[in-house]
Amino acid sequence: MVSIPEYYEGKNVLLTGVTGFMGKVLLEKLLRSCPKVNAVYALVRHKAGLTPEARIEEITNCKLFDRLRDEQPDFRAKIIVITSDLTQPELDLSEPIKEKLRECINIIFHCAATVRFNETLRDAVKLNVTATQQLLFLAQQMKNLEVFMHVSTAYAYCNRKQIEEVVYPPPVDPKKLIDCLEWMDDGLVNDITPKLIGDRPNTYTFTKALAEYVVQQEGAKLNTAIIRPSIVGASWKEPFPGWIDNFNGPSGLFIAAGKGILRTMRASNDALADLVPVDVVVNATLAAAWYSGVNRYNRPRNVMVYNCTTGGTNPFHWGEVGDLINLNFTLIPLENSLMHPNLSFQSNPLLCRCWTTVNHTVPAFLLDLLLRLTGHKPWMMKTITRLHRAMMLLEYFTSKTWIWNTENVTMLMNQLNPQDKKTFNFDVRQLHWAEYMENYCMGTKKYVLNEEMSGLPAARKHLNKLRNIRYGFNTVLVILIWRIFIARSQMARNIWYFVVSLCYKFLSYFRASSTMRY
Questions:
Q1: Residue 75 gets which letter from DSSP?
Q2: 3-state SS string over 16-64?
Q3: Which of 108, 105, 58 is nearest to 86 (CA)?
Q4: Contact in structure between 297 and 342 (CB atoms under 8 Å)
Q5: Mean pLDDT of 236-242
Q6: Whole-structure pTM over 0.85, yes or no?
Q7: Residue range 326-344: mean pLDDT, rounded
Q8: Mean pLDDT confidence for 38-53
């Protein structure tokens, strides 16, 4: 078969979600590794007073595109911006634009979606389901379309323990739900949402499952494929290690832990943290579209599904995540940290709530009280409240372990020639988690917080100061407890002496046993 770059040569690609995290990485990788691609048509909407053209200009001028900018200075000419709003009827496209797309598009990458876990059902259905349906209607009219690639999530069927690479029956009929939402008011929609999503944790996973069924049904006559990444994190290798540009997903929690704000979180240390680097997902997506494209005349009857996960081939647990976060943010501390990094996970809900009160709520309250007394505006309790909301949204995913079948991903990997395996590497067996987490933590410091490495000595000095303050505070606390509670009570002193004596005897026994062995 032709190589991946050869397949994309001369092709016109339609890309949605280009302003999102994965969309912009896919755009950069496609243009850099497939330099002979003809054009990328990017559907972009107006946002925050910026035109679609201005938004693409802002994206392509960021750090992510530095390597591409050096290798192909004129790459911007291949990006054709099309104003579109996926939540509007007909995707808000004019008839001349739609006719142009019908004539020229060869490959579609549908990455657009709302990834907010607490999105209302109406808005989640509008962007994740209806928009997918509308795009498929347009795709059916395209004369030269070879592949429709849909980006889903590995958690679309998180109500199952074991997830195969198939599209499961939907929890409700998407068409009936869309029809009902047209006449329901917001109050009624919010009331029925818990009953509709059932044992799924949020509207995001619910609507992504519906979208997959829409792809299967509406794309039955098209050459479609679905890729399901798990928790998408910073880049592994490309365009450089550790690139990340947002607080979404685990990144915001990593930063909060590095700042010393997040110290306790509900999670199981033994549960699999199914992190997958964004460049792994993008490489697998480009390779999956290539495979479907070159085999379009002998395509399988069912839609091809790829579970792009790491837990089954290179397991990594939440306990290890916490340890590496504490280690890395101690060695490369963030500036203006509030406390020394010391993140711990609690699987017991009651214990987690107790430690959250001790480690989060009480310090936040005391800091805000100090700020008020010194004439400053309090802000810590507000920050902690937002952090707790984010933690509650993620508890479901940090406390469970899923088993994903990845046979199609393995098959796809074996189809690549040696050069493509290097250029579009998605073999997570080669991923070294300690190195990846070091680059991830460094990436949050450099690319999200925009902190210069020249400030590292000062940050380390500040962290040492915080450690000394903590030791001093703990010493004073012990002395106060002794003076107030123990020194004044004979019973308390007896208990104290008994505990100290027991510890001394244990240490003496341990020392004697060690001496006898030698």
A1: G
A2: ECCCCHHHHHHHHHHHHHCCCCCEEEEEECCECCECHHHHHHHHHCCHH
A3: 108
A4: no
A5: 93
A6: yes
A7: 91
A8: 92
